[in-house]
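Researcher: Before we compare anything, I want clean individual predictions. No alignment, no superposition, just each chain on its own. First chain goes here; please echo the sequence and then give the structure tokens.
Model: Echoing the first chain and its structure:
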Amino acid sequence: MAVGRPISLTPNIASKSVSATATAAQTSFTVTGGYRINELGVYRNGVRLVQGKDFTASDGSTVTLLSGATVGDLIEFVIFDSFNIADAIKTVGDQTLQGELTATSGFTIGITSAGTLINDDSGPTGITSMNFVGTGNTFSYNSTTKTVDISISGGSGGGGIGTAIKYSDETTDSPFSYIEPSAIVEENLDLNTTNAGVTSTYIVSVIPTVQVISGVAVTVGSGKTMVIDVLQLGGR
């Protein structure tokens, strides 16, 4: 059986201190950042003042001494506030968390594609998971860059050339694929060591006819060789 009055713990309290140096006979002070009414400590040269007897603080912004300060007096304001975990984790903007974070439930990672959130349940897509279909598709954690590297290999059907033809379930690739007879280049392309290999490389297309629309330029950089209809389908 407990003896005496049980001890109850108060919620976590956060506080900050703001100081000001008084001028001669100064009575009014503005507290930087404001304060919560009745949750403020005021000190004059280290001696705590009593609210209502030594000062008034009723508007959340200013503190008024009932007797003027002496020039050089150090007036300190200790501002108290409740600490809530909801305020500690921001819902908007960037935030850095140091150490391990463990979530037992309700933890969601945003997945974006071309800048659009695709796993938002409230949005039009509502995607909540990603499946890697086909052999050779893998993902792994890169500890150097702190990223997840995703490797997507060609489908199991169609020999890896062209667009695979599906079976009747419209999901499984058959051994066959198809290639369009022609294609159109609709914007400028500069094929160089930035996007077409850092060494002397062949730039190929399996499509027999490639048309560049009027006003668009395709530039083949130094050391690059372009081969159209690499499978020589156009002569069949």
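Researcher: Okay. Second chain, same rules.
Model: Second chain and its structure:
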Amino acid sequence: MELLVTTTCALAMVAAGGLLLLISLRGAQTSALNHRLYDYVDQAVLGAKPQDSLLQSRSRELSGTFRARILTPLIRGWTGVLGSLTPTSTLKQLEEQLALAGNPLGMGPREFYGLHVGIMALGLWIAYGLMRNGLAVSGPAGSKALLSAIAAALAVIMCYYFPKAWLRSRARKRRDSIAKGLPDALDMLSVCVEAGLGFDQALLRVSEQWRTPLGAEFGRVVAEVGMGIPRREAMRNLVDRVNSQEIASFVAVILQSDQLGMSIKDTLHAQAEQMRIERRFRAQELARKMPLKMLFPLTLLIFPAIFAVVLGPAIPALMEFFATLNSGGQ
């Protein structure tokens, strides 16, 4: 019993430590409204009272939180040291995965690999502690050794798959966010084109107004075009970075319209309408999947509680009835 309690506490500590690490690694991310408010306040303050460059740089250094100014750079430095011996093939694969996830926390492949190695070392240390504590507990040797081995294996597996699962989750959330915001972005692009802006200027305006992953990708496309990369290649790089079917369709239509000399405005209108229809279909698909997903919580959690509430008061009467029948038969 003592070994089971120790194992449960250790696994809870592993889960809590992973959650705290995830929270600490998340940068000081604020919403788009907060960003715009900060920009407005900074412009108002700078317009009212000019400051020299030294004071401005100092205020920028002190404007972040403790997590963004001290904790995140410290973790990135240590993980970069741990990931200095990463194989080249692994670095390339991690770089592609980080690009799909939007380079979370500004980590490179070496830093992420070092973070993975550090979490694995933590898992091995926890597994060693569990094995040692399990062997020290008095009781049947076979049962305590088996429980210690299971707990140690679970700790190692959790620490090994946690960074990969977190990276895949970030990539999936980013892809869903881009697909969800693409119809509205196309509407804004069409409005900008109707107002007389070129396609590149419209992309730049969307990237300036929207603090979203899609806005950041549009800004990167404009930056690549400004650096001399052809627009066709920059748009294809966008497809490679996002790996989304909606973005691939949008880029294909834009490139085809540019090649055939069609109107960008009409193309953007038609593409926005198509994207809204597809977004509606995706929402309906998710809604139809909800009853099946709710079946397992209902079966495992809610139905037993309902049975306990409904049949619980009748259990003493049934026990007394069967006891009476048993005594009468004897």
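Researcher: What stands out in the second chain?
Model: Residues 219 and 299 are 48 Å apart (CA to CA). Additionally, The longest helix spans residues 141-194.
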